[in-house]
């Protein structure tokens, strides 16, 4: 009997529902054409959950997320919720689900599809063949550290506080993920922090060094995070795996996105302990500037689904099918607006979805 794969879909806000609709069509196609059984549920997260329930992540939604094999999330946030308290903002819902499921390892692969080599803002020779894995610590650091808040001082002046904090065990577990991955790739880890000015950065460097002793075949290089940002746009192919904290990983992965042509291309997997939960999400946000226009690029979400197929559902062939279909569509010249190039055909979100499904049909034989 075939196994049932349970998946909770959380489209979220802005372009979230638009891009998720295309991922959903791919899941339905896989169920119809590859004999797979999915148990799909859908719920609210972010601003839409706040509007419905007064909180960006309802307890019932979190409970569902704990039960399923994987969560596929679109994006949260938008100007509508700017005045809402931080603990009820859409983004707080995303942080909460990551934290509650203990999804400490965020894998953000920045790969340049060959047909998009000219779509990058960098010279083609810098990005052709690019394949970097950013491993971002996801449930610690300054997004979660205490104390935090905005206080009014006796002088009447206001003071904003956030705290960067990491412990040995938090650094060790993310470093192990990075070294394990590097061992299966090109054997190099670059650890990025700011140990020149931050004690938490010094601890990070020292503890990554400790973990590296378990991996004699993996080269470890330390790099200050600001230099890492610069090197990513100067000579990105020098990197294999970059391991870094929550804040720097957030920034460096947006930088890396542009090497691939667009933020709309970058998928991610948020993983916890073995056998625990997993969440798959594009790297980009809710893109309020283009929401509702039907022009968003669904590929980051579709590739996030492919990561779920590969890492959680152990459906490597289906993951290849999705990724090869994306490559074939790009090869054929279709582009959403964000990756548009001269001489190519500009298409909408749903036409991109149609094209990927057509290629899957063809590749499926
Ligand atoms: N994982 C998540 O849910 C994230 C949520 N956010 C939230 O999203 C909201 C907007 O944030 P921004 O700083 O504008 O970042 P963003 O990632 O939403 O957008 C940045 C730029 O990239 C473009 N873009 C992003 N995704 C795209 C796609 N799939 N196709 C085509 N173009 C795309 C947007 O149009 C915009 O010009 C904020 O509320 C922010 O907090 C931001 C990042 C991640
Ligand atoms: C809520 C933010 C931390 C989301 C974000 O920018 C990200 O995870 O990349
Ligand atoms: Mg980000």
UniProtKB/TrEMBL annotation:
InterPro entries (alphabetical): IsoCit/isopropylmalate_DH_CS, IsoPropMal-DH-like_dom, Isopropylmalate_DH
One Pfam family cited in the UniProt record for this chain: Iso_dh
Cellular component terms per the entry's GO annotation: cytosol
Domain of life: Bacteria
UniProt binding sites for Mg(2+): 226, 250, 254
Alphabetically ordered keywords of this record: Amino-acid biosynthesis, Branched-chain amino acid biosynthesis, Cytoplasm, Leucine biosynthesis, Magnesium, Manganese, Metal-binding, NAD, Oxidoreductase
Catalysed reactions, semicolon-separated: (2R,3S)-3-isopropylmalate + NAD(+) = 4-methyl-2-oxopentanoate + CO2 + NADH
Site annotation Important for catalysis: residues: 143, 194
Note on how the cofactor is bound: Binds 1 Mg(2+) or Mn(2+) ion per subunit.
E.C. numbers: 1.1.1.85
Ranges where the Isopropylmalate dehydrogenase-like domain occurs: 6-356
Principal location class: cytoplasm
Family: Belongs to the isocitrate and isopropylmalate dehydrogenases family. LeuB type 1 subfamily.
Function: Catalyzes the oxidation of 3-carboxy-2-hydroxy-4-methylpentanoate (3-isopropylmalate) to 3-carboxy-4-methyl-2-oxopentanoate. The product decarboxylates to 4-methyl-2 oxopentanoate.
NCBIfam families, alphabetized: leuB (TIGR00169)
Protein name according to UniProt: 3-isopropylmalate dehydrogenase
């Amino acid at each position: 009997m075939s196994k049932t794969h349970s998946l909770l879909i959380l489209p979220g806000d802005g372009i979230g529902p638009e891009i998720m609709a295309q991922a959903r069509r791919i899941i339905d196609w896989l169920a119809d054409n590859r004999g797979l059984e999915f148990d799909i549920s859908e719920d609210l997260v972010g601003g839409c959950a706040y509007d419905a329930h007064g909180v960006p992540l309802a307890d019932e939604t979190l409970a569902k997320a704990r039960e399923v094999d994987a969560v596929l999330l679109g994006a949260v946030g938008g100007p509508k919720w700017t005045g809402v308290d931080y603990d009820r903002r859409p983004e707080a819902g995303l942080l909460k689900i990551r934290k509650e499921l203990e999804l400490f390892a965020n894998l953000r692969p920045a790969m340049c599809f060959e047909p998009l080599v000219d779509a990058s803002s960098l010279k083609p020779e810098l990005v052709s063949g690019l394949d970097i894995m950013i491993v971002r610590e996801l449930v610690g650091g300054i997004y979660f550290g205490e104390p935090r808040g905005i206080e009014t001082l006796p002088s009447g002046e206001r003071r904003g506080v956030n705290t960067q904090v990491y412990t040995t065990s938090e650094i060790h577990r993310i470093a192990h993920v990075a070294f394990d991955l590097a061992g299966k790739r090109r054997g190099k880890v670059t650890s990025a922090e700011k140990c020149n000015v931050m004690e938490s950065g010094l601890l990070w460097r020292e503890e990554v060094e400790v973990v590296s002793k378990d991996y004699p075949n993996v080269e470890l290089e330390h790099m200050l995070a600001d230099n890492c940002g610069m090197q990513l746009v100067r000579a990105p192919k020098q990197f294999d795996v970059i391991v870094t904290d929550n804040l720097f990983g957030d920034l460096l992965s947006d930088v890396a996105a542009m090497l691939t042509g667009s933020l709309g291309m970058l998928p991610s997997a948020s993983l916890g302990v073995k056998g625990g939960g997993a969440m798959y999400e594009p790297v980009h946000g809710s893109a309020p500037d283009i929401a509702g226009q039907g022009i968003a690029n669904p590929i980051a979400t579709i590739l996030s689904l492919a990561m779920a197929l590969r890492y959680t559902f152990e459906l490597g062939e289906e993951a290849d099918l999705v990724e090869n279909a994306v490559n074939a569509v790009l090869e054929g010249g279709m582009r959403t607006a964000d990756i548009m190039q001269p001489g190519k055909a500009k298409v909408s979100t749903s036409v991109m979805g149609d094209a990927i499904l057509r290629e899957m049909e063809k590749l499926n034989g």
